[in-house]
Each structure stands twice: as C-alpha cells, then as structure tokens.
Amino acid sequence: MGGLIDLSFMKKQADSQKQEPPKAQAAIAPDDEARLKLYRIIIERYREEIEGHESKSVSDLKGLVQPRSETILSIRDSILETFRPYVYAEHFLQAAKMCFSYVSSFKPVSAPVSFWLSFSEMKELMAGDEIDKSILLCSLVRSIGSESAKIFVTDSKASYVVFEDKGVHYFADHSKPGLLEAKGWQECLALMRGKPIYAFSDKEYEDFAEEPE
Description:
44% of the residues lie in helices and 17% in strands. The protein contains 9 helices and 10 strands. Helix 5 (70-80) crosses helix 8 (130-143) and helix 6 (88-104) packs antiparallel against helix 8. A hairpin with a 4-residue loop joins strand 5 and strand 6. The two termini are 19 Å apart.
C-alpha cells in the first residue's frame, strides 16, 4: 500500500497525432508554431523523468485533496460571499452546486505527459483534465463543510466526486451539466463508467481491488 504506484493511466494524455482545425492553425504565427514544436521536443526528451517525478504514493493521493490550501480558501470565500453568513445546515447544497458550476467552467485539457496541475495553475489556466478537476471539486466541497466528499477513480480512467447531504447522495460527473442525485453509494457506483478501483479524500483511501469478491 505504501509503495509508489503508477497513476499515469489516470491522466488522459493529449494525442500527439491530433491536428488542430484549419482556423486554429491559421491563427498560430510561424514563430509560435516553432515554439510549440520545440516545447513538444523538450517534453518528449524528458518524458520519463517528468512522469517519474509525477508518480504518487497512497499517502500522496490523500495529500492532493487540500481543503485548507490558500487557493481553495480564496475560491471558497468568493463562492460563500453569496450567503453572508454561510450556514452549513441551510446553504451547503446550494454552495456545493456553485462549486460544481465553477469547476465545470474550466476547459478540459490534457498534457502530453502525465502531469498534475496545482490549484493555482488550474485557476490561472481555467482548465484541467478530469482528475485535476475532481481533486479541485472535492477540495472545494470539503472546504465548505462536507465530511463525506471523496473521489472515485474507475478502470476506464474516469473520475467522480461523491458526497452526502441530508441522506441524499450527490454525484459529480464532469461530462454532465449538473449534480446527479442517487439513493445511496451503490447507485452512485452504478452510474460510473467502468469499475471503481479506488476512492480517496484528504481523510481516507479505499482500494476496491483489495475487497473480497
């Protein structure tokens, strides 16, 4: 459990063969295009070193969810300004939906190598891949008071954030426009693409592969 595990399969890397649409290509100046090619050459040359550095242990996974980070608290405070004052029992679900809406506004983007973006980098880019967005959302939902929020990762490279409020389970699928409701954890699992392989938050880590059949 404590050794390094390769999480590169979670990162949906950009397709190096994919071509930009004609309009996008025309908009790139020759020097910018050369610079982009240079960046790709550099990345490809140091791919193994980058991805080796980006490998995460079980304890590292839990550490990725940071409800008390400076960036998360800044985003949280801007969301909770709506309520003045924020009362968890009254406002949590509405605030959680606002957190999901904020993360949903981020453009989907994949790096050409397995690479984890920090919260501040995501905020600056207003973009991230699916697992980055799940980690950001889980951190935000935890920061507004949820004790149950955690991330599920499946064998199809999909990730989801699930949390409970007043007996109802809420399910964040980044391919959907809003939070989904479920009657329990089992219904949440049934909504996922692929079989869950593990779940984590800053509080816990669960490996489903270790569960008996």
